[in-house]
Amino acid sequence: MSRILIFGAGGAIGRFALPLLAPDHRVLPVSRTAHADWIAADLNDTAVNWPDAEIVLSLGPLDAFARWLERTPTHGLRRIVAISSMSAQSKQDSPDPVERALAARLSDAETRLRNIAATRDIAWTIFRPTLVYGAGIDTTLTPLARFVRRWRILPIPLGASGLRQPVHAADLASACAEVIANPATFGKTYELGGGERLRFDAMIRRLGGAAPGFVLPIPIPSFALQLLARSGRIAPGALARLRIALVADNTRANHDFGYAPRSFQADAVLPLPA
Length: 274
Hints:
There is one protein chain. By secondary structure, the chain is of the alpha/beta class. It has one domain (about 1-270): 3-Layer(aba) Sandwich (Rossmann fold). It is about 35% helix and about 20% strand. It has 10 helices and 13 strands.
């Protein structure tokens, strides 16, 4: 059984990837928080004695992983699958300097990963997912779902016509598992979105409809959104993207490894307690 080192094992994608990979691999999960039988370590800690592995999954911050890869001897490593983000593209020209810096960091990390993999003859694949949900820990849809359930109101930005393509973390975990031994995916970067494209305002309405009980929709006009942006409650980049399509073309991924993600499941954003 191949040893597979999984960085970000406790994250949204990691929690779905572990049960998929465990039957066929010796899984070595890594997390900064302590778990039984996991490696409790930080990628930035230079004092860690990392175990050798034939495969590495990078499911956490890509820039930290690229730095780790550059400074860490990787005896026997032959395969890397790494998660980046569509933000590497979509936020390049953002009016928000923080978002532009994020896009630059992601692009730089992708380049560094490719370069070091080439010098060490390691096969790599990079995924750029769209809006990730499904584990109740994302920083975009989950906070909104919690707000709706607490206050029973659903703010809907008027004119938010930009298309979105939310992708379930479980589908990304499946994609990671599918490409590990697939030579057709070596040396490629894939955009990965969910199985459904819908307007931003329609996505928000779907999210409100998944909340139990009555929820009052409250339309938010554009002038109010502008005021919120000026007050710092909405990032200027996020406001600018409300009318911009942020979607992925899944065609190549479907052709190369049969990628077929599910449609948006609003009730999976913040599942009800059992």
